[in-house]
Design brief:
Helix content is about 35%, strand content about 15%. With about 325 residues, it is α/β, with parallel strands linked by helices. Helix 4 packs across helix 5, helix 7 runs parallel beside helix 8 and helix 8 runs parallel beside helix 10. It is globular. Bound molecules: zinc ion (ZN). The site of zinc ion (ZN) has 5 residues, from loops.
């Protein structure tokens, strides 16, 4: 008889590939992936983004050719980011909701091309302000909170009006969730449009490729007075609870991999909300760079990282790997 204690033996439970799958509380599915897309104001653009392997800036006229094959493979949702290159930017981000601007044009185009595709829109001012900050500023360069949230709510409502299923404010201004929710309700979209809050968005070094792609670097200073300090677990928990109270329908954590504890906190604090996380540009670029350097296999690492997010509690993952996962899953 073996001298092994019964309580020592675990391996029998995961000896087979199928029994290994059963160890996950939840599996990755195609529906969990939302694909971030950059829309520029040149309608015929298809421009490679050097720091984001395989990703491009798209013009509205190119969206059908780009997305049709992905929709056929099971793509169910996208999130749109405007990349205006020719508009005249000002201090309040006027071009953000220009009806002829790239985001509103893209919402309308996608609604007509792909009736079943769920269309979320990022809502922020930084791509449209002449100073590149995410809100409206005082003369001394600090955030002027009330006009910021009023303007952000106005933009969100105009995206809803254009046909967005979901508006997702990434600005991190205090009070904007309440202002957007009120605006949606007053405009008749309270029961039609989802409000996904970038609740715990950290001032991360992982946004570099996105800023290249979106041209959204601030012209002075940084965003450390509104994005959260990377050490700030308590603040993140307060922001998550505040946004849930203010009417957020989905809570998001961004970035993902260095903030898995915050994803787990969100799942614990708001267990009745979907929990989203954004696998940001720098995470995606890092995984590609590591694979290219022979550190690991790309697909294996793409699975390991996104599965860690699901394990932490995420139910929705914004990822540039979405087209790959439509093939892999
Ligand atoms: Zn911004």
């Amino acid at each position: 008889m073996s001298k092994m204690d019964i309580s020592s033996i675990l391996q029998g439970g995961y000896a087979h590939p199928l029994s290994r799958k059963w160890q996950a509380k939840r599996q990755l599915t195609k529906a969990m992936f939302m694909y971030p897309i950059f829309i520029t104001d040149d309608a015929d653009a298809s421009v490679e983004i050097a720091t984001l392997p395989g990703q491009r800036r798209w013009g509205v006229n190119k969206l059908e050719g780009f997305l049709r094959p992905l929709v056929e493979k099971g793509l169910e949702s996208v999130i749109l980011f405007g990349v205006p290159l020719t508009c005249i930017k000002d201090e309040r981000g006027t071009p953000a909701d220009d009806v002829n601007g790239p985001v509103i044009q893209a919402i309308k185009k996608l609604r007509s091309l792909f009736p079943s595709l769920y269309i979320a829109t990022d809502v922020c001012l930084c791509e449209y302000t002449d100073h590149g900050h995410c809100g409206v500023l005082h003369a001394d360069g600090t955030i002027n909170t009330e006009p910021s949230v009023d303007r952000i709510a106005e933009v969100a409502v105009n995206y809803a009006r254009a046909g967005a299923h979901c508006v997702a404010p990434s600005d991190m201004m205090d009070g904007r969730i309440k202002a957007i929710k009120r605006g949606l309700i007053d405009a008749g979209f309270g029961n039609k449009v989802t409000l996904m809050s970038y609740s715990a968005k950290f001032a991360s070094a992982l946004y570099g490729p996105f800023r290249d792609a979106a041209g959204s670097a601030p012209s002075f200073g940084d965003r450390k007075c509104y994005q959260l300090p990377p050490t700030a677990k308590g603040l993140a928990r307060r922001a998550i609870q505040r946004d849930a109270t203010e009417g957020a329908d989905i809570i998001m954590v961004k970035p993902s991999l260095p903030y898995l504890d915050i994803i787990a906190d969100a799942a614990e604090l708001t267990p009745d909300h979907p929990i989203a996380c954004y696998q940001v540009s720098g995470e995606f670029a890092m995984i590609h760079a590591g694979a290219a350097a022979g550190v690991y296999d790309l697909k294996t690492m793409a699975f390991e990282t996104t599965e860690s997010m699901v394990r932490a509690g995420a139910t929705l993952i914004l990822s540039y790997f979405t087209p790959d996962f439509l093939e892999w899953l």
